[in-house]
Design goal:
Elements lengths: L13 H8 L4 H7 L4 E3 L22 H10 L8 E8 L8 H13 L3 E8 L1 H8 L13 E2 L8 H8 L17 H12 L3 H18 L6 E3 L13
Parallel strand pairs: 2-3, 2-4
Antiparallel strand pairs: 1-5
Helix pairs in contact: 1-3, 7-8
Length: 231
């Protein structure tokens, strides 16, 4: 979740946000997780009819990432420096430490210099529930936290302009005029087709404006055995 409220955050430039999304080896992370995840290129899966038709289709493309960073004023002698809050365990995370280290190395080859602010899970929740520039955030430029992406109600929870932290869960303080207009129509819609069309508009904005660094969707595995009874 990228901090767009912090004045000196490198993520305030959309080209930097898109570059990061073109620099993550999602297939490598899926392999790291023994196949128990799916690459994430947006809040919804591309298989979801609400995904829409965004302009960007993120994949591992370091050259495109470097080109975007060059346009934003970065290069070999000037990497993008950012500090990300992470935790080593807690809640619904999969394997946060090896995943974060993998992401750190993946981004490095494109020109990102990522540092970690390592905290315990409770401290991360306190930071996430407060203003992104408040003391609990410890000056970080992003928070890597496991967040649910099940349906539009959760999308509103994380991205609606009326839910800016600390009043809600839009920690990064993301909004665009296009998305804000679409949210307003969703809030007042009574026709499902109209609502779905506006949800697709918001999601296209989420992909292209990239307020998050999309990593993977957890497939939420369950291990079953015939020896287990009454489950």
């Amino acid at each position: 979740v990228l901090n767009l409220a912090k004045e000196d955050s490198p993520w305030r430039d959309v080209r930097v946000r898109q570059a990061a999304n073109y620099c993550v080896d999602r297939d490598g992370i899926v392999k790291l997780l023994n196949g128990l995840a799916e690459p994430s290129v947006g809040f919804f899966s591309p298989k979801n009819p609400l995904f829409g038709k965004p302009k960007n289709a993120y994949k591992l493309d370091p050259e495109r990432a470097k080109k975007l960073l060059a346009e934003a004023g970065y290069g070999p002698g000037k990497p993008v420096k950012a500090k990300i809050m992470i935790s080593t365990s807690g809640s619904g995370q999969m394997h946060p430490l090896p995943m974060n280290e993998f992401i750190q190395q993946s981004l490095k080859r494109c020109g990102f210099d990522i540092a970690f602010e390592v905290v315990e899970w409770g401290a991360m929740l306190v930071a996430f529930r407060n203003h992104p520039t408040g003391p609990p955030a410890k000056g970080v430029d992003a928070v890597n936290i496991s967040l649910v992406a099940s349906d539009v109600s959760q999308m509103a929870r994380w991205f609606h302009p009326g839910t800016f932290a600390p009043n809600g869960s839009n920690w990064g303080h993301w909004k665009t005029s296009v998305a804000e207009a679409a949210w307003n129509k969703i809030d007042h819609a009574t026709d499902q087709k109209e609502m779905d069309a506006q949800i697709r508009t918001v999601h296209e904005q989420l992909v292209d404006d990239a307020p998050w660094l999309w990593i993977v969707h957890d497939v939420n595995p369950r291990a079953m055995s015939k020896r287990v009874k009454g489950f």
